[in-house]
């Protein structure tokens, strides 16, 4: 909404951006108006994007909206864009770093804009920017947008946000009571603060009104918005603020002239002071329509008696308001007002007070809207609006983009932007509505379409393609309201087939769309007019229950309806309670007869479809189409008769489907019905347990499968077979229990059956397994999973847990999981019978040692062989007891929060027996991780090393991966596998291995012979050690270069002796020693000691030498020696003398030399200079030493108008060459700078091609100017420059005195052109101007801050005879001068 960056900040980015836009933009084929009904979206000719959306055009090549993505440019476009836009704003998070007060609020409470994430130098997206805040203007715009958009959408959220902002402003943004401007809103605030009292002032952009300063027109704007808010909810605080504002505006009204407006641009609240001074124009502001709108609203309320009794209101005040309104309106429309003078300047809060004559388009655009909303106030409104539109197009219209005219913001920020383009569109849309001007309607349509491209898919809305930031005014407050105005003026731009209230001349207090063909709404004023677009044809409209008549116009109360676009316009004067009713639906009725709802079919299903369809009386059926989702199954075209039947042309697969029938009648209206069905494929089934190849114990075994039915069906049975023999089945799940007997089982499969009629059946893939009678290790009782809770008791205490046996068998092993933290080295486990819910007789027990270091860091299973080996019976209740050795410390175990537990007194040295005796019931639930296994094999573990191979050799230090295969005996589990070196040194351990293949890494083995073994230990502490695997480790060889010595020097042709010593690690020998030169060049290899060779005839220059020792390992190891540097010198000869020396004076202080290099072996050149003595050289002295092959030299710092002599010779280590012939040059006289700055300054600045820049200077002397000079920075891309000298005008360049052209630009140097002699006078102000003509490159100069001014004028190919551009900045000059 404002000048987003000082131009000094953004100008350097403009050139690149302009190039990008030129590459992505196509010129529209025509500017002629076209009907806006052409909506077939196509990629625009030439392609390209506008911001992040691909440009969409209609059949005429003109721009459409990018939205909605499914149908770009349709009537839903603006609705779609505004919905994205609103939702983004409403989702903004609260910020916690705000101050004064320090409360969390969204960014728009304290900041004017945030980063888009794609603007140069501004990221990430959503990051607030330290720029003055503009709360009064923003909040007034948001209230207008919220009160218009919320009833349009019947969505209160935007309106609620706007009213909350108004409440905050009234509490935290008002002037002090007692100020000259008492208790009225401030326009601006400091960045990041929640109390508004003006922002720091200055003389550029990016500054505020000034602390303690306000803008009277913003007082009027926010007060007008407060009146609208009062009309909506009756909050008298809003009304009272508006009355105070109107009274303050009335009391401060001035007599306006052409240079003094009714109120100042800015004024200090405390004392009514207005800033004055050079270039400061705070006494003038063109925006008076905001106060005029305020007075108009309050006068209407006062005349209606709605303000009686309000503080600050009286009949006297009403008369004063009327007088003020008349005075201001007369000035606006009169010869001194901006409509006549076109002095549309001053609006933005963040433009400095000395931004002279900052033209903008916002104020004239808002003025045009006001005149069209109130044509009775201005008999010449139509001519005035036409002139305003022309003014905006001329001064702020950008290049057409596919027939759309983007609009720039202001002279201080001359960039095209979305909200301002939308304002221009709204003005044209209203003008077209009032006059029927088709050209204006097309301008509006294309401009609105262009503005939609500023809204991204996320709803984030940028100000414009450049600088691409996210202003809350430009993106929301000033954006939404114009689209709603546009749709109110042209209802065919609102979504077809929907109900929307588009415009009211009052405030809409409530609206309801539906039920059915009905719309109800209430306006504050009994007398107002509305525009709606409906999805139905209205049959009746009532106001306060009284029917309004349908009319051909709205010259009186009544309503009109346009059947072409379903636009309803209503005028009412007796009541604001409006009800619109429509005729009942006219679409054909549809009832599906086949398939029936919920019906299930077997896949693949080819459906027979049927429906009964009844059209509205007087119509016929054109077609009936059956679909499954979006897929057409079949279509019956006219003539159509009931029942409508057809067979699907494609089949449906497994899943849920929605079958619909759509009937279209002879007038194109459609009706539909749908039913949900399912199509079932056969069940899926696969065996989970046992796995194929498994060996199972005899007895109770669970067979399980993964199985599911097709869509819409359930499983009725899962059964397991061996061939044709059933093993077991289930009707409630996917697993069953089988009593396994010994034998080999092949072709075992699972069969799943569903509930269909007929039922579908699927067999799984078969598996094979073995049941062995000798296999032990079947869990008989207890829990074999690790629990979730780490519990404990003290040594000498017994904890007992109740379990039900899950299998029948002979008890062989008892196991317990010792938890992390266990400190007891001996754990006893016992099995007890159940005695009425308590442990009874001790049946069997054993004790296991905890052999790992205590306390345990990692939990581990421990077990022991039960004695005696009793038989446990499936389904019988038993108790498993755990005792930690008395005095042995805390014992810990893992348990689950379920089951029964009892514990005994402490101090026991053994498990209680023969009976458990008394015990205490644990109040919670617990079942410990402990269990009993059936008796089986007691075979010790088996283990063998698989890697490394025997007798393997490795290079030390080596990271070895030790691998072994280890298995426990039947019924046992491995607790760990350990690897040892030489039988005693532990290398690494694998605890609780989960597979038979185990591995671990070791890096501790050193040079020498080793013997590695693996030791496997099971849960009963049985252990087996593998056969030893011998291996060796060898350290890499060592090598040291003994010849040549470091930094040795040789003379070409040279023979360099190379020699090295080398040694190897254990069991290896030296295979060879390689000698390398200069990194990778192999000189020779030596295989026997002493290692060496001779390097013959190396090239002249510096070299490096190294030795590499390689051993006999497989793979071989190698080592590099330290690198030694040597030099091979040649017999150097003196270089040949250079020739052809020339000397050229290029300025008053510089002479350039050039010569021809005649030698190939010089190391450099020696440049000598001598003064001129009577036409001959004096004494020469050396002044430069250019390097080898250099043939130029610049001698700077010479005196003007002076002759110098030069000579040059070549040099190398052998000596110096002869001199060149002498050469001389005479420097010209130094130029005289009469106007400007002949110093090369340090800071670069620039303007784009086509933008002229002028700087003012005071002449330092009187004389005649014959040359204009500018120092051109090296970044310049311009190839031609126009330079100019101007007299001084009123703070801007005046009469053009002289111009000239630099036809070939030299970057990084002074560029000069000649002019006809022009007299200048000392002490007089002149302007120096520069222009890179439009279409050329950018011009960069050098500048610095200082006194003086800088003005710009865009859009030029030659320097202007009369300077009309006024944008620019004070306090700047550049390296440019006029002299002779």
Detailed description of the structure:
With 1380 residues, the protein is an alpha+beta fold. Among the domains are: 510-582, Sandwich (Immunoglobulin-like), CATH 2.60.40; 595-680, Immunoglobulin-like (Sandwich), CATH 2.60.40.10; 684-772, Sandwich (Immunoglobulin-like), CATH 2.60.40; 779-934, Jelly Rolls (Sandwich); 942-1034, Immunoglobulins (Immunoglobulin-like); 1038-1120, Immunoglobulins (Immunoglobulin-like, Sandwich); 1139-1226, Immunoglobulin-like (Sandwich); 1233-1379, Sandwich (Jelly Rolls). The chain contains 14 helices and 91 strands. Strands 82, 83, 85, 86, 88, 89 and 90 form a seven-stranded antiparallel beta sheet that branches. A hairpin with a 2-residue loop joins β2 and β3 (53-54). α3 (135-153) packs antiparallel against α4, α3 (135-153) crosses α14 (472-489) and α10 (362-373) packs antiparallel against α11 (381-396). The longest helix has 19 residues, at 135-153. The protein is flat. The model is unreliable at 1-39 (pLDDT under 50).
SSE arrangement:
Layout: H1 7-24, E1 42-43, E2 49-50, E3 53-54, E4 56-57, E5 63-64, H2 77-90, E6 94-95, E7 105-106, E8 113-114, H3 135-153, H4 157-172, E9 213-214, H5 216-233, H6 236-251, E10 267-268, H7 289-303, H8 315-333, H9 338-341, H10 362-373, H11 381-396, E11 407-410, E12 413-417, H12 418-435, H13 438-452, E13 470-471, H14 472-489, E14 500-504, E15 508-513, E16 518-523, E17 528-533, E18 538-543, E19 546-548, E20 558-562, E21 567-572, E22 577-582, E23 589-594, E24 600-602, E25 608-614, E26 621-628, E27 631-637, E28 644-647, E29 655-665, E30 670-680, E31 684-689, E32 695-697, E33 699-708, E34 715-722, E35 725-730, E36 735-740, E37 743-754, E38 761-763, E39 767-772, E40 779-782, E41 789-793, E42 798-804, E43 809-818, E44 826-834, E45 839-849, E46 860-865, E47 871-872, E48 877-884, E49 891-896, E50 901-903, E51 920-921, E52 927-928, E53 930-934, E54 942-947, E55 952-955, E56 960-967, E57 974-981, E58 985-991, E59 997-1002, E60 1008-1018, E61 1023-1025, E62 1029-1034, E63 1038-1043, E64 1048-1051, E65 1055-1063, E66 1070-1077, ...
Helix pairs in contact: 2-14, 3-4, 3-5, 3-14, 5-6, 5-7, 6-7, 7-8, 10-11, 10-12, 11-12, 12-13, 12-14
Domain Fibronectin type-III: 1137-1230
Pfam families: Big_7
Protein name: Fibronectin type-III domain-containing protein
